[in-house]
Design brief:
Blueprint (H helix, E strand, L loop, with lengths): L10 E10 L6 E3 L4 H13 L5 E5 L6 E5 L3 E11 L1
Antiparallel strand pairs: 1-2, 1-5, 3-4
C-alpha cells in the first residue's frame, strides 16, 4: 500500500550551495543561518585576494575549507522532506 502524507508532515530545510571553479558538483552546506553564510560568501567573492574560508556544518560535511577566489557562484536551496 502506498503511504500518503498530508501537507503538515512536509518540512523544509535550507542549504547553501557553493560552486567552485573547476568542480562539477557544488558543496552543499547545511548551517543554522543560511542567509548569513550566503551574504558572507558573496562578500568574499568580491575580493580579488584569496583567503581560506573554513566552516563547520550540520550535514554530512562536518568541516570544509576552500579558497575564496575559487568561488564561482553561491545559492540557497530549499528542500522538502517528511
Amino acid at each position: 500500500m502506498a503511504q500518503q502524507f498530508n501537507a503538515q508532515n512536509i518540512k523544509k530545510r535550507y542549504s547553501v550551495l557553493v560552486f567552485l571553479k573547476g568542480s562539477t558538483a557544488p558543496l552543499v552546506m547545511y548551517v543554522e543561518n543560511t542567509e548569513e553564510l550566503y551574504s558572507e560568501l558573496q562578500q568574499a567573492m568580491k575580493s580579488a585576494a584569496g583567503t581560506i574560508i573554513e566552516k563547520e556544518t550540520l550535514g554530512p560535511l562536518k568541516k570544509v575549507s576552500f579558497i575564496s577566489n575559487q568561488i564561482a557562484a553561491v545559492a540557497i536551496q530549499e528542500e522538502q522532506y517528511v
